[in-house]
Amino acid sequence: MENTTQQLHSSSNRKPKTLQVSLLAVALVLLLFLASPVSSCNEEEKTSLLGFLDGLSQASALNTSWKNDTNCCLWEGVTCNEDGAVMDISLASMGLEGHISPSLGNLTGLLRLNLSGNLLSGELPPELLLSSCIVVLDVSFNKLNGEFHELPSTQELAIKVINISSNFFTGYFPSDTLYGMKNLASLNMSNNSFTGKFPSTVCVDKPFFVVLDLSYNQFHGGIPPELGNCPVLRVLKAGQNQFSGTLPFILDLAGNWLNGEIPDSIGQLKMLEELHLDNNNMSGELPSSLSNCSNLTTFILKGNNFHGKLTNVNFSTLPNLKFLDFRSNKFSGTHSSRKHLLLQQPY
User: Fold this and answer.
1) What phi, psi does 40 have (nearest 5°)?
2) Which residue of 167, 202, 218, 291 sits 20 to 30 Å from the alpha carbon of 46, by its own alpha carbon?
3) What's the protein's topology in the membrane (predicted)?
């Protein structure tokens, strides 16, 4: 009986010890996890950031955060990746004054730079436009000025979004630089003082180009017909400039994801010769204003969801119309026979 009691007593003593060991192990794991160091930027990254700081006024809001003896991955507006490389600088609307240092172009891991809504002045460093890593560049709503110079690039640029709107830039926009931006998706250069003809290279080899805003500048000359070569362009704003001449004769937007109706304003394109809207997802009835497009020779709507009566358009006012393709839509009614006319036949 005594032996049994000793065994039970011994067993009861072992359980707390086992529990203590388990709790100690958990505590050690948590301690190691909490003690894991935050990504620390290297000296080259810090030097580049401090170079930017040196270009700002002494009263900068960053002076209290950006200290030389601290980890720059913890500085205000700075985000680093797990390797300690600066990947994001977001300093919008902080009242920053001074100029933008080209040292930011030395940040080889920088993906996004947002300096919008400040009081920055001077020129935009070309190192930022020619960066091989920056994807989004936003310096809108500042006091930047100066001209852009031709900056031919020997490598494909990563940049996708450029917003330089609401500044004081002047001169021409460099066509060679624009040509090298194969990944460009959005370019907003509105509310500046750019002059000259807009580069015809804007749509060359740009399969992702969606938004172009040229409004409120001093561009002149004709609108480049090459704009019709932008395969996925969704937004084109060019108001309040000095463009002259006529709109491009051919408007080809076939094979996109366009939806909605054909606007009544289409009738204002009196010099339009070809309109290709086939293989989209457009709908609605044909606007009667199409009757005003008296120079139209080719009108292709195949592969959409248009409906309504074809008699909405007075085709007798379109004497030059030679090819009309309405297949795979939902039109009702008939149309007088015409050479090369394709209505509701299947593919």
Assistant:
1) -115, 125
2) 167
3) Single-pass type I membrane protein
Q: How many CA atoms lie within 13 A of 256 on its CB side?
A: 21
Per-residue pLDDT tens over the stretch 36-79: 455 678 888 899 999 999 999 876 778 888 887 788 899 999 99
CA 274 – CA 256 distance, rounded (Å)? 17
* Distance, CA of 143 to CA of 182 (rounded, Å): 28
Give the DSSP H/E element, type plus range, for residue 119.
Answer: strand 119-122
Q: Measured between alpha carbons, how far is 305 from 124 in angstroms, rounded to an integer?
A: 47
List, in order, residues 6 or more apart from 11 with CB less than 8 Å away: none
Integer Cα distance of 212 and 47 in angstroms: 35
For tokens 């750019």, what's the residue? 194
Domain spans, the chain: 246-347
Domain topology for 246-347 = 3.80.10
Other C-beta atoms within 10 Å of 167: how many? 22
